[in-house]
Amino acid sequence: MQRHGGRAVGAGPHLERRPALGYYDHMRYCCHCGQALDKDMGVFRATTCPSCGKDLRVCLNCRFYSPGEHWDCRETIEEAVRDKDRANFCSYFSYIEKAAGAGAADPATNAGAGGLQRGSQSSQAREAFDKLFGDG
């Protein structure tokens, strides 16, 4: 091992880069069907789920997707993405990884990193409104 400016230079087993703890405990899932995906699979605009055939590079699969934020994104995107479940060209896209075994049990409610279940807040609000004012 060489020394350069008081620092050790070179590679040794104690200097190897290793993934952070928990790295292997996370998986990628399709937001449409809940299928577990290969973590090392590249996701491009035309990439589709091998199980259901739907687009994978969508807002609902992005770690920055957050319902209620400006244009439902935690990044400062310049224009809104209208169809959150269709492929797009967003340069901020980063696939969300969830704890192994925490795939989309109900794909209709999977909502990415925001942690909110799509439709649940609006349906709860509708139920409260109907309860208060009646439904007809």
Please give a quick description of this structure.
The chain has 136 residues and is largely without helices or strands.
Features of the shown structure:
136 residues, little secondary structure, three-stranded antiparallel sheet, two-stranded antiparallel ribbon, 1 helix, globular
Write the layout of secondary structure elements.
Blueprint: E1 2-4, E2 7-9, E3 26-29, E4 36-37, E5 98-99, H1 120-133
Antiparallel strand pairs: 1-2, 3-4, 3-5
Can you characterise this structure?
This protein is largely without helices or strands. It has one domain (24-136). The protein has one helix and five strands, in the order βββββα. It has one helix at 120-133, and strands at 2-4, 7-9, 26-29, 36-37, 98-99. It has a three-stranded antiparallel β-sheet with strand order 4-3-5, with no helix packed on it. Strands 1-2 form a two-stranded antiparallel sheet. It is globular. The model is unreliable at 105-119 (pLDDT under 50).
| Record field, number of beta strands | 5
Radius of gyration: 21 Å
| Uncertain parts | 105-119
SSE sequence, one letter per element? EEEEEH
* Helical content band: 10-25%
Output mean pLDDT. 73
Strand order of the largest sheet: 4-3-5
The N- and C-terminal alpha carbons lie at a distance of: 80 Å
Sheet with most strands: 3 strands, antiparallel
- What is the 3D shape? globular
Which structural class fits the helix and strand makeup? little secondary structure
Beta-strand residue percentage = 5-15%
Number of domains: 1
How many helical stretches?
1
